[in-house]
Design a protein that fits this description.
Elements (H helix, E strand, L loop, with lengths): L1 H27 L2 H4 L12 H24 L4 H21 L5 H25 L4 H23 L10 H28 L4 H20 L5 H24 L11 H22 L7 H12 L1
Helix pairs in contact: 1-4, 1-5, 1-7, 3-5, 3-9, 3-10, 4-5, 5-7, 6-7, 7-8, 7-9, 8-9, 9-10
Length: 296
């Protein structure tokens, strides 16, 4: 009974807290604090962004399995430890006045792990069907976007310049990881398509989104968020395919090697970005000038 209660309150309570805590905090701050301007806290969406994003989703999948199974933390224990770690890093991220590659991507990796654990708890500990959890997280993400847009008038990641907007951003990120985990597991396990087939399907969907964006058939903001959701199950399928045993449809590399290899790659790439600042966001006015020059 106690484990079931912890399984429920751990992932669900944390996801709800992550979604709405900063909105609540914003209502208790003074008006000047709510609108405190910062440099944009999100990196430029360049090729490194998507590479690290996919790698982080793979680490989220394999690291959760490693902590749960190999280190015997158990599903509930792993969830609570990772939730506390994520909360601490998010405080660090919120206190920063600008985008810092190391802090930002550490938060993304931890969100990936926690998002995976939320879905795993609902499925394994509480017996919630993947169809239900996929639908619930889709609704939660849509509600987050609706409240975000109603409050701020934009969902653009190029305008994360206040604590309130940053709160909405990270709430959305958490739900994209939880939704992507549920949708990926539903396709690969629920529909019995296997890991590599599921990965190909999600890769094809991302390619369609990319083509629609390149052809100006899809709004850039919508294209970004669709791709962001789809990269989660793509990375998870890749991680499962590498780490799971051959009898389960994987290559049998194992979660330790898979997690270590991908995490090391993330560290190298983030270190490179931290030094070169190639992904540092431009001020909005400079971005507008750059986009105008590109169209000439």
């Amino acid at each position: 009974m106690t484990e079931a209660l912890l399984a429920l309150t751990g992932p669900c309570g944390f996801s709800l807290l992550s979604a709405w805590a900063w909105e609540f905090a914003g209502m208790t701050l003074t008006k000047s604090a709510q609108t405190r301007q910062m440099l944009n806290k999100v990196p430029e969406v360049i090729v490194y962004f998507w590479i690290i994003k996919v790698l982080s989703t793979t680490v989220g999948e394999t690291a959760a399995d490693f902590l749960n199974v190999n280190l015997h933390f158990g599903l509930t224990g792993t969830t609570l430890v990772m939730a506390v770690a994520l909360a601490a890093v998010l405080v660090w991220q919120f206190r920063a006045r600008r985008y810092v590659a190391g802090i930002y991507w550490l938060a993304v990796v931890l969100v990936s792990i926690v998002g995976t654990l939320i879905t795993d708890n609902l499925t394994d500990s509480l017996g919630v069907p993947l169809e239900v959890s996929t639908a619930v997280f889709a609704v939660a993400l849509a509600a987050t976007f609706a409240i975000w847009y109603r409050s701020e008038g934009t969902l653009s990641i190029h305008s994360i310049v206040t604590a309130r907007r940053e709160g909405f951003y990270w709430a959305a990120i958490l739900f994209t990881f939880a939704l992507g985990t549920a949708a990926g597991d539903l396709l690969s396990e629920g529909f019995d398509l296997g890991y590599w087939r599921s990965g190909l399907i999600f890769a094809a969907l991302i390619a369609v989104v990319g083509a629609a964006y390149a052809g100006s058939w899809l709004n850039p903001i919508l294209a970004f968020w669709i791709a962001y959701v789809l990269t989660r199950p793509l990375g998870a399928s890749l991680g499962d395919y590498l780490s799971q045993g051959r009898d389960e449809g994987g290559l049998g590399v194992g979660p330790v090697i898979t997690s270590g290899l991908f995490l090391a790659t993330i560290v190298v790439l983030v270190g490179y970005l931290g030094v070169t600042r190639r992904d540092a966001s431009l001020p909005l006015v400079n971005r507008d000038e750059r986009d105008l020059a590109a169209r000439r």
